[in-house]
């Protein structure tokens, strides 16, 4: 594995020293015991309720996202239906004719003009006052 | 030529590679929840994993803790591992991370509890000769990373690239750390040789 070594042969002793300092424990008994300890910890994780919970986290998130999307679409559609119905009702309902909203102002305008015209021909005080001003 | 032996795995998987169980098959079986397959992976890699951890942490006990933590992390992350990738490289990276975490935790704890204490990193009751004693001392003068790099390279035989990947540093940095570590050791140990 090692690509090259910079230590010269004089430094072999140092490398040997390092190897003895960092030597892994010898004997299968030690490694069997370590393996048993590792597997015991792994078993604890396997049996823990959080493992089951972890397993369900992703599907739960996907389901929640799908639910939110569906709810969003449903709300959007409901809102759109309401708007459509409101427009439709407004356009088709005969209860309030469109002209009603406009007519009074037109009527008032016309009435004022008629009154003005006819008022002048009648000998009313208001009319005479206006005539005198003119 | 080595005779190939076979190993029966659950789910009808048989695995054999020159007397050693096929690692990829073991990984796939372990991913399917076969704990015996994971135990086999532990058996295959624990010595090397220990060596990686031992190069990074300061004591044998910490190395043991880091190995256990590392295998636990690996087990939890196993479903995210792609079986076509080399399992060893992935595992040793996890081991290195577990060890670096442990070193960080120890530093924080030591800073909180014993601000004036100087850590004695290598406990080796069997050491007797002067060179080993001085070597121990010399290693404490190196930075954590330099020490890890020199041990991983010169003792465990990892390449610069592998070391860089494990420690999360560029290959060039690993190379330069090794160079500086050796220079420091040579300088410190030169005096020892003249004394001996």
Explain what this protein looks like in three dimensions.
- The complex is a heterodimer of chains A (134) and B (196).
- Chain A starts with 11 loop residues before the first helix and ends with a helix.
- In chain A, α4 packs across α5.
- Chain A is an all-alpha fold.
- Helices cover 80% and strands 0% of the residues of chain A.
- Chain A is built from 5 helices and no strands.
- The N terminus of chain A is likely disordered.
- Helices cover 67% and strands 3% of the residues of chain B.
- In chain B, strands 1-2 form a two-stranded antiparallel ribbon.
- The N terminus of chain B is likely disordered.
- At the A-B interface, α1 and α2 of A face α2, α3, α5, α6 and α8 of B.
Descriptive key words:
heterodimer, A: 134 residues, mainly alpha, disordered N terminus, B: 196 residues, two-stranded antiparallel ribbon, 2 strands, 3% strand, elongated
Show the largest interface: A-B, 29 and 44 residues
- Mean pLDDT across the residues of chain B is 81
Return Rg of chain A in Å.
Answer: 48 Å
Largest sheet of chain B: 2 strands, antiparallel
Q: In what range is the share of β-strand residues of chain B? A: under 5%
Give the oligomeric state of the chains in this entry, treating copies of one chain as homo and distinct chains as hetero: heterodimer
The number of helical segments of chain A is 5
Quick one: how many beta strands of chain A?
Answer: 0
Shape category of chain A: rod-shaped
Strand content of chain A: under 5%
The termini of chain A sit apart by 118 Å
Structure annotation, total helices of chain B: 8
Helical fraction of chain B equals 55-70%
How much is the average pLDDT of chain A? 75
Order of helices and strands of chain B: EEHHHHHHHH
Computed Rg of chain B:
20 Å
How many β-strand runs of chain B? 2
Distance between the termini of chain B: 48 Å
Q: What is the overall shape of chain B?
A: elongated
Class derived from helix and strand content of chain B:
mainly alpha
């Amino acid at each position: 594995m090692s690509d090259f070594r910079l230590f010269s042969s004089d430094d072999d002793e140092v490398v040997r020293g390092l190897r003895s300092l960092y030597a892994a424990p010898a004997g299968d008994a030690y490694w069997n015991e370590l393996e048993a300890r590792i597997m015991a910890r792994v078993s604890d994780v396997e049996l823990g309720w959080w493992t089951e919970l972890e397993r369900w986290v992703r599907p739960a998130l996907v389901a929640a996202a799908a639910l939110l999307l569906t709810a969003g679409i449903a709300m959007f559609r409901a809102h759109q239906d309401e708007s459509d119905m409101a427009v439709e009702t407004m356009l088709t309902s005969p209860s309030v004719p469109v002209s009603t909203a406009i007519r009074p102002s037109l009527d008032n305008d016309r009435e004022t003009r008629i009154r003005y015209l006819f008022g002048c021909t009648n000998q009313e005080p208001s009319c005479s006052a206006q005539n005198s001003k003119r | 030529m080595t005779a190939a032996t076979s190993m029966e795995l659950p789910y009808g998987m048989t695995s054999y590679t020159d007397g050693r169980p096929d690692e990829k098959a073991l990984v796939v079986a372990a991913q399917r929840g076969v704990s015996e397959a994971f135990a086999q992976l532990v058996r295959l890699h624990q010595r090397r994993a220990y060596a990686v951890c031992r190069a990074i942490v300061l004591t044998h006990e910490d190395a043991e803790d880091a190995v256990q933590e590392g295998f636990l992390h690996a087990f939890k992350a196993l479903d995210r591992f792609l079986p076509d990738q080399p399992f060893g490289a992935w595992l040793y990276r996890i081991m290195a991370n577990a060890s670096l975490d442990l070193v960080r935790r120890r530093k924080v704890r030591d800073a909180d509890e014993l601000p004036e204490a100087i850590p004695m990193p290598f406990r080796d009751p069997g050491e007797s000769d002067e060179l080993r004693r001085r070597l121990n001392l010399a290693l404490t003068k190196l930075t954590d990373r330099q020490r890890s790099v020199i041990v991983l390279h010169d003792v465990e035989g990892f390449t610069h690239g592998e070391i860089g990947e494990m420690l999360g540093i560029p290959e060039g940095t690993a190379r330069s750390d090794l160079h500086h570590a050796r220079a420091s050791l040579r300088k410190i140990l030169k005096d020892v040789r003249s004394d001996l």
